[in-house]
């Protein structure tokens, strides 16, 4: 249950947030609370004793909510052990193989190998490298307008949802397709006028764009791009970093489209980064892909393996689909919002403008609900898989109140919260 004991942020949180603002070199903006580690299901408690309903799920990286008993057991099993991080590509642990096998068991049958790494961006980076290695004549990659793939320079070159992420950083050559039914025509045009198939390293796509606005790809667009890439032998990479591991009601978002990528990337909910493909797609030479920690954080891998097991045992794919449909129904009934959309537990809606969106994020947090912005003027709802309809109702009641409040002309939030709130513009 939501419980607010102090202002948001509370005094203990405020002290730490101020310190981070001053000393964290990567500071942008943050959520106005500091997590205590306490919590249950979709509810989390901050160090001031406030309890929030979390519909941000640590940006889709916490699928099972707080203190799931199955995951707590895994953590207990590793207490008294050190190190928990091994130089995993060179020094093997059994968790490494188990994680790969677990991942392959929920992947298309023909995808029979995976490479583990630390983060989503590194998964994308290594998917790019995997494709490029196979295509020595390749000179550029193709991504979608509004796409988001991470912050390492390769992944960032393919990202183009918001200028702030890229300003001042060098890029490798990339071209864009519009994220609509004209994509296939543009790809044909590029192939006709700009580059031969061999010069194109890959096409990368999120079937539900994350940071770019929770835009759901239309089936025709995906089928057309896949048909053209297949015909021309251009590898198709599905970025499943945000959509993957059951969030959309299927293990991977490409399953909604009846297509098969050549390579896909996972991370976030999986707890480790991963590139999945046919073994023959990966470079044959030892050392072509590697890293110190990749495949080496044994606790992360054990938690990822258990997460897959819990999703299977508790039949969460179906549950996510049903709860998603329920939430979309509630979303469609809402007034003063537009463009309500959703696939499984990736839902979003638009409000009047970016300023109202930012106010809405703040007001929801002040009423005990954590949500994130995305795109130009959207709010995304990403509840953990352990959320019930009653929790969703509670969230919608808050959102409706917040929408009413922030719709009033001239509304602006004030107070310490403004210094820290995440307004949704700079986060993946
Ligand atoms: C679709 C997508 N790809 C890649 C990334 C990069 O993942 P990470 O932040 O773990 O590097 C993210 C999230 O940031 C994402 O949402």
Overall description:
The chain is of the alpha/beta class and about 425 residues long. The protein is about 35% helix and about 15% strand. It contains 13 helices and 15 strands. It has helices at about 10-25, 55-60, 70-75, 95-105, 120-135, 155-160, 185-195, 220-230, 300-315, 315-330, 355-365, 390-405, 415-420, and strands spanning about 35-40, 45, 50-55, 115, 140-145, 175, 200-205, 235-240, 265, 275, 340-345, 345-350, 370, 370-375, 380. The strands form 3 sheets. A 7-stranded mixed β-sheet has the order 4-10-9-8-7-5-6, sandwiched between helices. Strands 1-2-3-13 form a 4-stranded mixed β-sheet. A 4-stranded antiparallel β-sheet has the order 11-12-15-14, with helices on one face. Pyridoxal-5'-phosphate binds near residues 210 and 211.
Q: Percent range for helical residues?
A: 25-40%
> pLDDT under 50 segments (min length 5)?
423-428
List each distinct ligand once: pyridoxal-5'-phosphate
Distance between the termini: 28 Å
Into which percentage range does the β-strand content fall? 15-25%
**Tally of DSSP β-strands:** 15
Encode the helix/strand succession as letters: HEEEHHHEHEHEHEHEEEHHEEHEEEHH
Tell the overall outline: globular
Radius of gyration: 21 Å
Number of helices: 13
Sheet/helix structural class: alpha/beta
Roughly what is the average pLDDT, rounded to an integer? 95
Strand order of the largest sheet: 4-10-9-8-7-5-6
The main pleated sheet reads as: 7 strands, mixed
